[in-house]
Amino acid sequence: MTSALTFPASVLGIRVTLIGCGFVHSVFARTLNLSGRGTWFALQSPEVPAVAHGVQVLWPLRDLREHFAEGAAWEWHDGRLSIARRDGGRIRVNARQATMWRSPLRPGAVDEKRIASRARALHRECNLLAEGRSVFWGARSEHPPGLVLRARQGLRALRRARSAGQIEHAVRTLIGLGAGLTPAGDDAVIGWLAGMTLLPPDRLRHQRAADARHAIAECLSRTTDVSRAHLEDALAGEFSQAVSQFGNALANDSLDADDVRPALVELARVGASSGLDAVAGLLAAVFSQATIPLPPTLWRGSLSPDRRPAYGPGRSVASVEGL
Amino acid sequence: MHATFHILRRTYRDSVTLMQLAAKLARLPGVSNASASMATPANLDLLREAGTDVSGVEAGPNDLLIMLEGEDAAVQAALAEAQKLLSDRGEGAEQGERKRMAPRSLAMALAEGQAGLALISVPGEYAAAEALKSVHLGLNVMLFSDNVSMADEVVLKREADARGLIVMGPDCGTAIIDGIPLAFANKVRRGPIGLVAASGTGLQQVTVLIDRMGSGITQAIGTGGRDLKKEVGGLSMLAGLRALAEDPDTRVIVLISKPPAVEIAQRILAQARRADKPVVVNFLGTDAAAIDGDNLHGAYTLEDAARIAVALSEGRTPAAPPQPAIPGSGPKFTAGQRCIRGLYSGGTFCYEATLLLQAELDNVYSNTHVGRAKDLDNPWRSRGHTLIDLGDDLFTRGRPHPMIDHRLRNERILQEAADPEVAVILLDVVLGYGSHPDPAAEMRPALMQAADLARKSGREIAFVGHVCGTEADPQNVTRQSAALSGMGMLLANSNAQAVRLAARLARG
Hints:
The structure holds 2 protein chains of 2 kinds.
Chain A: E1 4-13, E2 20-27, E3 31-36, E4 39-44, E5 54-57, E6 73-77, E7 80-84, E8 90-94, E9 99-101, H1 112-120, H2 123-130, H3 145-160, H4 164-174, H5 184-198, H6 203-219, H7 225-235, H8 241-250, H9 257-268, H10 274-289
Parallel strand pairs in A: 1-8, 1-9, 4-5
Antiparallel strand pairs in A: 1-5, 2-3, 2-6, 3-4, 6-7, 7-8
Helix pairs in contact in A: 1-10, 2-9, 3-4, 3-10, 4-6, 5-7, 5-8, 5-10, 8-9, 8-10, 9-10
Chain B: E1 3-9, H1 15-26, E2 31-38, H2 41-49, E3 63-70, H3 72-87, H4 106-112, E4 117-120, H5 124-136, E5 140-143, H6 150-162, E6 167-168, E7 174-177, E8 180-183, E9 190-197, H7 200-212, E10 217-222, H8 235-246, E11 252-257, H9 262-274, E12 279-283, H10 288-291, E13 296-298, H11 302-313, E14 339-344, H12 347-360, E15 364-366, E16 374-375, E17 385-389, H13 393-396, H14 407-417, E18 422-430, H15 439-456, E19 462-468, H16 477-486, E20 490-492, H17 495-507
Parallel strand pairs in B: 4-5, 5-6, 9-10, 9-11, 11-12, 12-13, 14-17, 14-18, 15-16, 15-17, 18-19, 19-20
Antiparallel strand pairs in B: 1-3, 2-3, 7-8
Helix pairs in contact in B: 5-6, 7-11, 12-17, 14-15, 15-16
């Protein structure tokens, strides 16, 4: 690698404000988070689904951690970004030809029971995909039991909440809950907002979403700054590419569960568990509206088997413990 | 037991990395409890509820908090270990991204290893651009995609040629490179014979028969069906021929194609004569005897090509092709039963069958437009002796290729069986990668129902076919053949033999 390589950016998140300078916030294998002047955006390798604050860069770098370090300076001028490298050189990104990208999550006019029925068929897939990574899925979450219990309680509360107070309590439980850069609870809340966006609007749903937005805005200081940026995007109706694709596939009347699966798998690939956590939130929103029973696979993740209520075909979501 | 905290300001790791870190620390001797998480209020609440006093912890949501409980010395050692693990930027760190994602670009894929070939299967309108990128990156290309324009094909092949590379395709469905079957291909032995073919199933048939004769191949290079047209100039076949001529492991070369443009054929044969090794040429439908001479050996059929190549590679004189035997208790046809209906999944099999059958019988219809065969007014309805390539665009629009999806052929088997003029239904069964995992099982209901249908109207139908596959194929040729024979199908060793057998049966 020479010291002044320039790579093109292919996709520019619509919410990225491309000015100024700052420092490398955090570095992951395929995502470089940059912050400065109160803003944040991410440089993403091509295989990472775009986020609203993301700039996809066509660089063939296998592991960004080999090239960049936290605290390194960046500056953006005239559509070109320059970032200091670990070895003292610089890598430049040319975004002048990049395509502006906007989250295309489309509120659906689809029968919500049909969405829920399609979502139900994906539960087994989610449990298999999780492999212990997500606090919300699978019998074998490798996270601390206390965290798993709290996260599932929080999402269950969000799903069941009807009053503003209940919603605020659930949101407060979830925001900031989870070990990593974007806590699992935050990702689930984002997924829940996406699910609420997908479903056909009605007065009750509109009120619940408004209450949730208010509660989320109040809780933004309780989480990491990168996760806060994602939550702010979600509050503005902007979702990551993978969340949007999955949501749109779920709400597409012409698709069955098999057709939705690729979008699910794509979303599950996001982050360590972020994608799967978002799926849990999104499906919770879908199921909270439906009266069809939850699938039994949901119970695999319960921490207290002896407290599980019996699952039966006649039980509605509202009376079933779990997710 | 009191807790010890270590705060890493503005340090970020993903959840799985931190979960694994905590688990690793908790397993260290003398450590009774450990956690690692961002110090958000929710996470601090969790610690508090678990009985840990966090009142003195001055950390915020953007700080990484490590909590350890245990013996003092062990806790100190664990902290040192935590810092070491967190500073490790290589293997073991950030396992949250532990599942390596598949490359999403050619450049990324190239960075993953020592690739020398790109297999491109994207919609046709994008395929040429991806192929060109690959060539510019120094990669040979197998272009599985179709719907690439002839003009793009020419540009691609010239670019590749200028760089000493080869573009296999567009619409190249079969190749075996360095022993690795690509797309629709069979698992065959390595050996001394190299092939270049402008025909997918032709390549499959010859490689399978070579394997069946106990020999093997070095490379099987596809070119795409249009390569030998005048506009393209046979650039890929010439490149493949050149590569095999220079390959010390290749003792005999086989070229397979439908009839090329005359000047292209001359160019190819001229280059073949310059090869310092025998070249077997099977340009289906051309006069093989006219090709014979010097190091060139003409072959009339795909089976001949395999047989001659194996003999030459072993220093033997090729023997005459075997005649198919009619079983002693052959089918008994009624006076009106005189027609053959061939339902092919392989285009080249249908092409070869049409050539062979019109040499044996009159009144041959086909949708392959070859030789004296008559075109069908309606390819969905057979007449006389009809041979149909069910892989033709007409039949595959909106559905998978018949090698994968047998439904259309099964329906057609029943349709033909209902025709009182039909004596023989001729079928190919293609095994290997890409094909249906169990064709015999897929065909069984249709064959049984068709036989039953005929029997109820006082007729008997002969099902004649060949299985293009090897022992090493995922479907296993012996297993498939046994299953098909069990259903009463008469199996020949090759497509050519199956056609001749069908002709003999129909003639009575």
